[in-house]
Amino acid sequence: VQLQASGGGLVQAGGSLTLSCAASRRIISPNNMGWYRQAPGRRRELVATMTSRGGTDYAESVKDRFTISRDNAKNMVYLQMNKLKPEDTAVYYCNLNPAGANNYWGPGTLVTVSS
Predict the structure, then answer these.
(1) What is the DSSP string of 17-78?
(2) What backbone phi and psi angles, to 5 degrees, belong to 103?
(3) CA-to-CA distance for 55 and 32, rounded, in angstroms?
(4) Of 47, 42, 43, nearest to 94 (Cα)?
(5) Residue 27 has pLDDT above 90, yes or no
(6) What's the whole-number mean pLDDT along residues 76-94?
(7) Residue 17 near residue 84 (C-beta atoms within 8 A)
(8) Which of 8, 32, 62, 90 is placed for a possible disulfide with 109 were both Cys, Cβ 3.0 to 4.6 Å?
(9) Which residues contact 94 (CB under 8 A, 6 or more apart)?
(10) Average pLDDT value for residue range 63-86
């Protein structure tokens, strides 16, 4: 099973992107999910979470700019990113929250924000 993130790209500061996450098996709908990111030279960090019941939480650095959502019928998770900043540049991944030692990590999707 892999969780495949897509939708990344190059955007100017202040712009928006929407990331999508799909799974090859129905593992999204029953689980708490998270969006993670890893910038060059930095550790992977959790930026947005959503429980199976719809509760959300965000890292301070993205609060009020990013919105996580899910469509359980489609087995998909999304991350709407607005007011992007150069420091948001990273490879973005989705996974369960917590991810623990699972092997669901996909290749991620690269988001590059130019100043």
Answers:
(1) EEEEEEESSS-STTS-EEEEEE-TTS--EEEEEE-TTS-EEE-TTTTTTEEEEEETTTTEEE
(2) -110, 35
(3) 9
(4) 47
(5) no
(6) 97
(7) yes
(8) 8
(9) 3, 5, 19, 21, 33, 34, 35, 36, 77, 79, 106
(10) 96
Measured between alpha carbons, how far is 100 from 69 in angstroms, rounded to an integer? 22
Q: Give residue 29's pLDDT.
A: 83
In three-state secondary structure terms, 81 is strand
Those residues whose C-beta lies under 8 Å from the C-beta of residue 5, and which sit 6 or more positions away, are: 19, 20, 21, 92, 93, 94, 106, 107, 108, 109
pLDDT for 39 equals 97
What is the spatial order of strands in the sheet that 33-38 belongs to?
Answer: 9-12, 109-114, 90-96, 33-38, 45-50, 56-58
To the nearest whole percent, how much of the chain has pLDDT over 70?
100
Q: Cα–Cα distances in Å, from 2 out to 9, 89, 115?
A: 21, 23, 33
